[in-house]
Amino acid sequence: MLIISLTIIASLFYVLATSHVLSRLFHHQGPSQKVTIILSTVAILAHMLLLVNSVFRADGQDLSIVNVALLTCWIIVLCVTTVSLKFPATLLLPVVYGFAALLTISSLFIPHHVLLQSINVELALVAHISLSLLAYCILIIATLYGVQFYFIDKRLKRKDLAIVHSHLPPLMVVERQLYQLLNLGTVLLSVALITGFVFLDGMFAKEYIHKTILSLVAWAIFATIAVGHVKRGWRGKVVVVSIMIAAFTLTLAYFGSRFIQEVVLNKF
């Protein structure tokens, strides 16, 4: 009952935060930061308590794909909300809040019960998982910045006066933050892959080879874009689409097989 209550509270306040931001998306003053922070803070705290109660159960630790997705989503929401305190993120907030609302409420209907009686803590494994999760979150945020950049750039080229007088961030600021996040995420993903190859066995084992290959493909795309931007000044629609493809590939690597096994086939 507690989990259901926390899920409803988190989803409700994410929806309220989304509605508030969207209602003033193109207003020259933008959404009220105070109202946005109050609504999102309640949602984030409820989301955190939901995670704690979902993962740490009396009969073991539930590390299902749903709980991992909830954790990833919580980190992204927290990061974007924190960034919005200093830099305008009017386009990003309704996206992350809306997705968080959908994910939290969906968690009530998706089966997830991968219980572990005990967890063997190995430093190398913890480092690899932590770096991988952090890299994924940063690269997903970079992808959102890429979409925001493309949207603003397209509206400006159409000479849309509404966006000129809106609260949306300057195009050059969005672009600079996009490539800063892309570079940081790519470096972290590189280190995560290196730690995996150096310290972990079975990266190319039959049950993990698809994850390794997809991760390497995603890394290659991200790294190529990062280098291409520095060396050749790559930017624009093709870059944004490439980043989205890389993010989708990395998502498949991290969550694809587990989603099929745990949710579609319900093997666990």
Count of runs of 4 or more consecutive helical residues = 9
Largest sheet entry: 3 strands, antiparallel
Query: What is the straight-line distance between the termini?
Result: 23 Å
What is the arithmetic mean of pLDDT?
A: 86
Q: Quick one: how many beta strands?
A: 3
Based on CA atoms alone, the radius of gyration comes out at 19 Å
Gross geometry: flat
Question: Which ranges are low-confidence, i.e. pLDDT below 50, for 5 or more consecutive residues?
Answer: none
Name the assembly state.
Answer: single chain
Spatially, the strands of the biggest sheet line up as 1-2-3
- SSE pattern, N- to C-terminal: HHEEHHEHHHHH
Beta-strand content estimate: under 5%
Briefly note the structural class of the backbone. mainly alpha
Helix content: over 70%
Structural notes for this entry:
With 268 residues, the protein is mainly alpha-helical. The chain is built from nine helices and three strands; from the N terminus they run H-H-E-E-H-H-E-H-H-H-H-H. It has a three-stranded antiparallel β-sheet with strand order 1-2-3. A hairpin with a 2-residue loop joins strand 1 (56-57) and strand 2 (60-62). The longest helix is centred in the middle third of the chain and has 35 residues, at 123-157. The radius of gyration is 19 Å and the shape is flat. The two termini are 23 Å apart.
